[in-house]
Each structure stands twice: as structure tokens, then as C-alpha cells.
Amino acid sequence: MPHCGRAASCYHTATMLRQICWKERDEEGLRREIRVAVQRSQVKWQFWSEATDRWDYDSPPSAADWDALLERMENRYQRRNVSFDDLQLVRQARDQALGQGTD
User: Fold this and answer.
1) What are the residue boundaries of the structural domains of the chain, listed by start?
2) Neighbours of 61 (CB within 10 A)
3) pLDDT tens-digit profile of 47-58?
4) Cβ-count burial 64-91 (b if 16+ within 10 Å, e if not)
């Protein structure tokens, strides 16, 4: 059974790993779980799909995935649950992944 062992949408800082998790349904109505780890200067994605019943560590996130992560990070930042540095890291990683330079 897939889950990160925490609430459906989590963010924890007990260690230096900061992770955000959420669940959704894909276009075909199958369950999908997304975990994103923010650590040091990296953003690492993990996807679980009901169709494959296994974790995928290699697929790149879609623009919608990046938007969902950024929205969750901004909401947590407003509640002071995410540092400004982490929020900026995610914004920069999103722009780089989607080819949107900040020139």
C-alpha cells in the first residue's frame, strides 16, 4: 500500500529532509500519489500509480505537478511551515525544468 506514513499532505522537518506528499486521481480515474523531497539544493520527485502499484523515481514531473507543488509550498510559507529558501529553491527548480529562465 502506498503512502509516506504521514498525512495525505505532509511537510516534516524532523531531519534535514523536507517532504511534501499529496494524492490525486489521474485522467483515467486511477489513484496517484506524489512525494517531493526538498533537501539541500535538490528537489526529488517520487510517483506512485495504482496502474503500476510501484514507486517511480525516474519520471519527470509535469507542469501541473510543478504547479501543485508550488501552490502547496506557498500555502505553507504563508503559515510559516516552509522556509523562504525552500520556496525559492522550488521556484528556481520549476523555472529551470520548464525552461522558463528568470533573466
Assistant:
1) 11-96
2) 19
3) 999 999 999 999
4) ebbebbeebbeebbeeeebeeebbebbe
Alpha helices in 4-97 (DSSP H): 63-78, 84-97
Model confidence pLDDT, tens digit, residues 1-28: 455 555 445 544 443 458 999 999 988 9
C-alpha cell at 43: 528537489
Q: What is the dihedral of CA 77, 78, 84, 89, to 10 degrees?
A: 50
Q: Which of 71, 63, 103, 65 is nearest to 87 (CA)?
A: 71
* pTM of the entire predicted model: 0.78
What are the start-end ranges of the E strands in the chain? Answer: 11-12, 18-25, 31-39, 42-49, 54-56
Q: How many CB atoms lie within 10 A of CB 103?
A: 3
Cα 58 from Cα 1, distance rounded (Å): 20
Phi-psi sector, 32: left (phi>0), alpha (psi -120 to 50), beta: beta
Please state, in angstroms and rounded to a whole number, the distance separating the CA atoms of residues 68 and 65: 5
